[in-house]
Structure formats: C-alpha cells, structure tokens
Amino acid sequence: MDEFIHEPRIAYFSMEIALRNEIKTYTGGLGVLAGDTMRSAADLRLPLVAVSLVSRAGHFRQALDPSAGQVEQPAPWEPRQWMRALDAKIAVSIEGRPVWIGAWLYVLESQLGGRAPVILLDTALDENAPQDREITHYLYGGDSRYRLKQEIVLGVGGVRMLQALGFEIRQFHMNEGHSAMLGLELLRRYSYPAADVQPGEPPYDLPRVRALCSFTTHTPVEAGHDRFPYPLVEPLLGGMVDLSVLKHLAGDEDLNMTRLALNLSEFVNGVAKRHAELSTRMFPGYHVQAITNGVHPYTWTAGPFRQLYDAHLPGWCHEPELLVRSESCLPDAKVWEAHVACKRELLDAVRALTRTALDPALPTIGFARRMTSYKRPDLLFTDIGRLAAIAARRPFQVLLAGKAHPLDAEGKALIRQLLAHARELAGRVPVVYLPDYDLALARLMVAGVDVWLNTPLPPFEASGTSGMKAAFNGVPSLSVLDGWWIEGCIEGVTGWAVGAPDASSDAGPLYEKLEQVVLPLYDVGAPAPWIRLMKGAISKTAPYFNSHRMMRRYATEAYIR
C-alpha cells in the first residue's frame, strides 16, 4: 500500500462502483458515475481512494423471455481473479456481535499513467457467523435489515478499514446517502472527554465532523432516499451514537440516510443545476450547490473517435475542452467514417445477441436506461399506429436495453410491454430489445446509434449521463428537458428538446419532433448536414459534460476548504 498511503487522500464512498465489465460491483448510473469519478482522479492524479462493497454475488444477469419478460439469473464473480486481498481485518458491531471485514485492492490505471486505489470490503470470512458472511454478497439485495447491515459495513467499516490500512484521510465524500454511517463513526472517533462535556450536552465534535465530510445527493424522488425504522436501527447499531442525537441528525420518525448525510456534511451538492434547486426545496434550510455530472472521456469514446481526436486534437484525453475545436478541426469525411465503423460494430453485436439483422442505412434510435416507470421507456410506443405511419414515410429502427430491479414490478411490466410492442410493430418498425445491459453493451450503443432518446417524467431525472456519453461519439440527443439536458440542449445543434421546459408532455411532441425534424434531417443530411449536427454535439457537449471538469470542481469547491 506504500504507493497510496504516502500522502493524505480524499475517501470516496459509494455503495456501487463500475470498475470493469467483468466485475459486477455496479448496476446503474450511480456506479458508473463512481467509476468515472475514480478514472478521472487517476487521469488528473488527484489523491482519492474509493471505498465500496465487493458484491461478489453481483446484481443479476438479465435474460429475456417473449412472454415473461425479464428473467433474472445469478451473476457471481471471483474477486481473486481481478484484485489482491489485503492483510488488514477490522470489526464492526452488528446486533451486539462482532462482524469481521476484510478488504480487496483494485487499482484503476489511467492511460495517462496515473493510478487510483479502490478498496472493496468483504465479510465472507471464516471468523463470521454464516449469516454475516453474506452481508457484502448481493448488490441492493435482501430486505431493509440486510440493507442496513450493508450500510453499517460500508460506512463504519470503511472508515475503520482505511485507518487500519494506514491511510490519512483529509476529506470524506459520500456518493449518495448509503454511506452516511461513516459520519457516525467519525462522531464516535471525535468525542470530547467526559470531563469537558456540560450536563445535557452531546459529547461529539460535530463541527469537526462536518468539516471533514462532503455529500452528493442523486435523487429528487423522496421515496428514493433510504429510511430505516428505529426499532430496526437500535438493535443493529447497539448504541453506537446516543439515540437522541441520532434522531436529531437523521429524523424523529425514522433514520433518513439523506438527512443524516446532510447534517454531517459541510459541503452538499446536487448533480445538475435543476436537481440542486429541487433538493433545496425538498430539504429546506440546507445549502445545496450544483456540480453537474460528467462522463469519463477516454472510457466512453469509441476507438474510431479516439483515433480521430488523437490525430486532430492531441491532448483531448487530459483536456477534453480541446474538443470545442471539433467543428473546425475534424474533417467531415473522417467523422462520418468513424460513425459508420461504430454503427457497424453495434449492428454486428445486435446480430450476435439476437439473430436480428438491422439495416445500417436506416437511422437507428437508441434507448437504454434502468427500466422504471419515471424513465418512461414506453413513451415512444404510446400510439403504435402513428409510430408505424411515421416509419412508413421515413423508415427508422429502434434499439432498446435496460434492466428492472427484481422487486420493481412496474419496471418488469414495462419490459414485457416493450417486448410486446416490438412484436406488434414487426414488419413495420424494426424494434430490438438487447438483453443484459452492461458496460460493454452501453459503450457499443452510445457510439453506434444515430440518435439517443431519453424520455423521463420531469422533474425526476436528477442528471442522467447516457446522452453525454453519446455526444463524445457525435450522437445527438432527442430528450425531454430534465436533468442535465436542460443545460446541454442547444436546439438543432447538440440535439433536440421534446416538449417545453417544466412540462411532463405526452408523446405528441416526441412524434412531431421525430417526424418533422429528426428523420427529415437524416434523410437529407447523411452525411453533410447530419455531420454538422454530430460535430455540434461533440464541440458543444463533450468539452463541458465530462468527469474531468466535474472532478476539478470537486477539488476546488469541496475538497480544498
């Protein structure tokens, strides 16, 4: 560990983190963002160390059944194949008994030479009772008791593990409220001597803890914030912090992990400008700043575009702001050539996965998200007759992908509906649903489609990053004005808005924009006017909506205080 413990570091805590496709420690946007955060830290040589759970049983693999929809299959992986076991072991108390925690080290290596450590916590140890060995097995699995145990291991165990490994931590960054228990461990650590405490006053150095902590909140949906009833919390935590103090910090009715993180953090931010405004209204009295998310430039730029940027805009990986010159520096023919190569690779993958041959000449619309109701994956199919009529005049094809949480009945019903729509449109509009959406498939889709579709119900999209990834590959977005797209949309330049701001529009504006603007431009403009659009997406989106800019802002606003 000597390479990483010689200087003070910022500890970045996240329940999930996307390290590579084979390591199933992620399930969606939160984990992908965490991975991009650490990749940019490696690129920029920022002194971060990430802490997460090993999740050796993964989330699940998704198979698709024409009638049943999503079928979940086990997704285990072997940590020893990809990382090194560390010697340190620490214990936390859960339900009055010690739960021992080991750790694995994974090192993210930048193509620019930097390296960033990731510590993955593991309770699958012989010292533990059988039920405790599985605490770090399942990503977002189990009931509330299981989840609370995981969050104790992540927060309390993570702080103790960093200390045991010899890290000196200058700041703690909580990526969502799952890790807010780390603040309780810091309160325990920074307690005043009993002789210095006035009667009736709590013994904790709260200002010191707040000065050490930053918190990024990710969801504008009240139901999306973890809550645990105190009759569950008390026996599991075992009086780690005085109950009256805990209720003061986390809420009287139940333990709200977001409120706990808010009250224990000096710096709080949302993940887009609108999301910060919504969070301030949800939690009045807190100052929520906005640091809009970004994506890792090298990871999400396909090979053909990497080569193009290397040739004409050298240094773009370290300074993605150089891509602002794309319109004047990138030859049109080379941009189109790179896109054709990406589209060919995607359609080859579609054929391999589904035995469906799509037409490379047709405009391809891509939609790939976590399948849940507020994402509205079915909006495009609201009026099957109208969609088919549009395609009869201007043919196009659709690619879909995404998983629903195993306990999300609505999300799983949406997948069944989408599969049914695909069958209903057969022979009129080719619609293909790709199974088991993961990092590898995401990279192919954001680079290989012609248009990236996003249709969330405002204001429930906190940020969203898939459209940013598409833009690095010259793919414009067709999106509802919510999340990051409020900041990123320049109509007709980076893509198109669906409906008006602050409007939860139906499918009408989507059909109108598709029929009257998007498809006619593709028909007339592949390649010339369409290439201007592609270069607009690159030059106006990629220079700002990247994780290098995001991390430089965290460094100057959250970490250096």
Query: What is the CATH class name of the largest domain?
Result: Alpha Beta
Could you name the ranges where pLDDT drops below 50 across 5 or more consecutive residues? none
Approximate strand percentage: 15-25%
The major sheet is characterized as: 10 strands, mixed
Radius of gyration: 24 Å
**What's the pLDDT, averaged over the residues?**
95
Looking at how many chains there are and whether they match, the oligomeric state comes to single chain
Please give the number of β-strands: 20
The CATH homologous superfamily of the largest domain is termed: Glycogen Phosphorylase B
CATH architectural name of the largest domain: 3-Layer(aba) Sandwich
Instruction: Note the overall shape.
Output: globular
What is the CA-CA span between the terminal residues? Answer: 27 Å
Total number of domains: 2
Helix content: 40-55%
Derived from helix and strand composition plus strand pairing, the structural class reads alpha/beta
The CATH topology assignment of the largest domain is Rossmann fold
Please tally the helical runs, counting DSSP H or I stretches of 4 or more residues: 22
